[in-house]
Amino acid sequence: MLIIWGIAVLMGVLTVVLLLGKGSFLIAGYNTSSKEEKKEYNEKRLCRVMGGGMGVITLMLIGWGVMGEKFPVSVFVIVTIITVILIQVLSSTICRAQVNDGGDQKKETSRDQIYRRASFICSAVILAGVTFVLFTGHVTPVLHEDSLEIQVSYWSDNEVAYRSIKSVAYMEDLQRGSRKGGIGGPTLQAGHFKNAEFGDYMLYSYTSCDSFVVLDTEQGTVVLNGKDKAATKELYEELLEKVGEG
Question: Where do the Bacterial Pleckstrin homology domain residues begin and end (predicted)?
Answer without folding.
Answer: 143-237
